[in-house]
């Protein structure tokens, strides 16, 4: 994906809605430092293209406010790695070579990624490894962000899943990703929310492994 500073205004609006979930026109105006008239022009165009929708949200006091969110088509703006072709190929492989071939493929991919990314983790403490993993996932279109909790644990959040259609059918993808994270971080990692299971994001709770 483009860096945020390379995006057009309409792409930035889509990016903000992906990150925030919903936003009002006023919030977008403040974030983008545009006039109300300019932001409304962009929002109208995005609505006409079927990329966003608006709905009324009840406020705690005063009149309801209009909030915008991505449509399914708008969510498709973010990379999904040609899922239809991948699903067709995996189905054909399963039919010709049996169910086990899919496990082998995902495990082989996991091991290849581990070998290529592990050197980037060398010499870093857990905080550094988590930040490095977030950078790796960001570069691959996952819109990842890492934060430290008050109890010393970490949370890795992925707002986009480029392979969600594949992972929804072949859960081996999710299992192997979790195994990969545990190996790269050398930590206890648990997935607490999953995009492929209907969540709005993938969230990982990360804690120091015993003895580290």
UniProtKB/TrEMBL annotation:
DNA-binding found in the keyword field: yes
Keywords carried by this UniProt record: DNA-binding
One Pfam family recorded for the sequence: HTH_24
Entry keyword annotation includes Membrane: no
Coiled coil residues, start to end: none
Protein name, entry field: Helix-turn-helix transcriptional regulator
